[in-house]
Amino acid sequence: MSRDQRVACFAILLACGCRSAHPNGPSPDTSQGGTTFVRGMLVRADGSVVDDAVVAIEGSRIARVGTAREMPIPSGAAVIGGPGKWIIPGLIDAHVHFFQSGGLYTRPDVIDLTSRVPYAEETRRVREALPETFRRYLRAGVTSVIDFGGPEWNFEMRDLATRTPFAPRVATAGPLLSSLARPQLDLGDPPIRQVTEPAAARAMVRAQAPRKPDFIKLWWPLGPGHTPQTWQPVAAAAVDEAHALGLRVAIHATELEVARLALRMGADVLVHSVVDAEVDDEFIRLLREGNVGYVTTLAVFGGYPRVLSHKVQLIAAEMELADPKVVATVLEPFTVPESRYRGPPGPAARRNVRRVWDGGGLLAAGSDAGNIGTFHAAGLHRELEELVAAGLTPAEALTAATANAARVMGRADLGEIEPGKLADMLVLGASPLDDIRNARRIEWVVKDGVPRRPDEILPRTAEEIVQAQVNAYNAQDLEAFLSTYSDDAVIVRAGTGETLMAGKQSMRERYGSMFARFPANRVRIAERKIEGTNTVVDHEIVTGRGPERPDPWDVGWVRYELGDGLIRKVALP
After folding, report:
1. Does residue 492 contact residue 570 with C-beta atoms inside 8 Å?
2. Rounded to 5 degrees, what are φ and ψ at 220?
3. Contact 318, 378 (CB under 8 A)
4. By CB neighbour count within 10 A (0-12 exposed, 13-18 middle, 19+ buried), where does 537 fall?
5. pLDDT tens digits, residue range 82-120?
6. 446: helix, coil or strand?
7. CA 571 to CA 497: how far, in whole Å?
8. Residue 43: φ, ψ to 5°
9. Nearest Cα to 405, choosing from 416, 395, 394?
10. DSSP 8-state assignment for residue 167
11. CA of 334: how far to CAs of 32, 116, 196, 309, 565, in Å?
12. CA dist., res. 328 & res. 466, Å (int)
């Protein structure tokens, strides 16, 4: 059937009374049961495409999958999607940390800025923001996540996600058993706990068992004077005790020889790529024979260097999906001790992604979101882009973030659009196989059979859009900055109404020149007022404008007027 014929068939179905849910209209009512139909080009786990597919959802599960020819949609049925739309499984981020914000103050063991923001205050903010953070994941199309370790309250976080409608489903680990101490993170419920004796490791595993962790997490970095074998007896005892209790073990081991030891002692998941050397055939054989998950986390390897070197570059996903208040922190001025800055790992991490995939290893996409510079919800979309840059095809990257991530999570009922599985899926407006960034072109998020529009899950407020614009300005990122403006945006003088700039091209020329001339140019919001739903008024103070302006320069109150989710008019004092 041609595309024109499919369009005609769909129009006939609408005329017969099918209740198609328009992307900008209300979600279909699924509260009374019945069947919801999802229609579009269906991407399977092997990368193949079912042309003009129909997915029937009953309750929380997928009832049937076929083509429109095989499964005619009944008159009056609820329908989402349609010709030109794409259907993929809900995305799964196979490595996050909800006890961290992704901002500058979340790891005082890496960079200590507690004189600005005490760590207790940072953790309080993180916990208060959990419902919004959950919503961000769902809005980003991430319907499930694995939290690979945090404080004991991680288990309360998992319970909160379970009873929160707008949240991903969460698998979690408790406190990390560690080869190194991290006292900077100890507020009475430390997320990382050093253990130095095998008997103590066994006791710590037994102590977590009543909380029913989805994983026991071991953190195995090499400290000064340590070899891969130094902590091996402790790690082996923890693995043995966990397996005796029926618990799976996830191990942080980024060096090849540490990761090899982890595989030999029975690790179930390696939560990072190996970064110091290329994996060899024996390593891949151990992965494959043990059915061990290999989680990629390329995003986090770049996140720390970008922030600590003051070279933050915001991709579109971070502009759209990350909490702009958190993003703002990594753009603040700070000094990092030379000893704390490490550049990004060598190319081995990327090459290992391709080698593990080609070798038949269980490669899963995970971002390690929550760490400095790797933002919740946006992190997996950056990871998908990183995987494609590392040599995976878009189809392979999607499989890593769906079917393979579900296997790492231990969920046979997730990750694929097949009868009997939970109805977690996304309806996209463009093909993710043509461009992996189209995985953000989300028109519907379906979780547990309930379809919702992204703006229903978490609308982008005027304040959020204006703050995203401020973040892009401070990152000196012209394209990200302009993405917050409508094509016909105008900038005027408040007192006289004089037009200073009209349209994006005018803004591109003026701001592009300014960013080039004044790379230290930054703006600070001294005070903010919100007027209604579409107006934000900021008191702005600018620094780094060179000799032509006082430093700091008190700009005064700037008025932003928005429409259709973009800035349409700016009035400068």
Report:
1. yes
2. -120, 55
3. yes
4. middle
5. 999 999 999 999 999 999 999 999 999 999 999 999 999
6. strand
7. 8
8. -95, 120
9. 416
10. S
11. 55, 10, 35, 10, 32
12. 12
Q: How far is CA 219 from CA 59, 177, 271, 334, in A?
A: 40, 6, 10, 28
CA–CA separation, 53 and 78 (whole Å): 15
For the whole model, what pTM was predicted?
0.92
* Angle subtended by helix axes 348-358 and 281-290, to nearest 10: 50
pLDDT tens, 312-355?
999 999 999 999 999 999 999 998 876 565 666 678 999 999 99
Token pair of 322 as six digits: 């990350």
* 345-397 pLDDT tens trace: 678 999 999 999 999 999 999 999 999 999 999 999 999 999 999 999 999 99
- Contact between 91 and 426 under an 8 Å Cβ cutoff? The reply is yes
Residue with tokens 């028109």: 443
**Cβ-count burial of 298 within 10 angstroms (0-12 exposed, 13-18 middle, 19+ buried)?**
buried
The two tokens of residue 297 are 């986390």
Name the residue with tokens 């099918």: 18
Closest listed residue to residue 421, CA positions, set 65, 88, 87, 61: 61
Domains 3-90+416-457 and 462-572 agree in fold: no
CATH of domain 462-572: 3.10.450.50
Helix (H, G, I), strand (E, B) or coil at 386: helix
Residue type, 294: Y
| Whole-number Cα distances in Å, 54 to 70, 137, 430, 490 | 9, 26, 17, 45
Tokens of 154: 């991680």
Is the torsion defined by CA of 386, 392, 397, 400 positive or negative?
negative
- How is residue 314 written in tokens? 């915001």
Fold classified for 3-90+416-457: Urease, subunit C; domain 1 (2.30.40)
What tokens does 259 get?
Answer: 């990761």
**β-pairing, 176-178 with 169-172?**
unpaired
Q: What are the sequence ranges of the domains in the chain?
A: 3-90+416-457, 94-409, 462-572
Sole residue written with tokens 């971070």: 318
Burial 451-479 (b: 16+ CB within 10 A, else e): bbbbeebbebbbbbbbbbbbbbbbbbbbe
CA distances from 337 to 302, 308, 328, 340 (A): 18, 9, 21, 5
**Nearest alpha-carbon partner for 314 in 234, 246, 373:** 373
* Domain at 94-409: CATH architecture: Alpha-Beta Barrel (3.20)
Q: Are strands 293-295 and 269-270 parallel, antiparallel or unpaired?
A: parallel
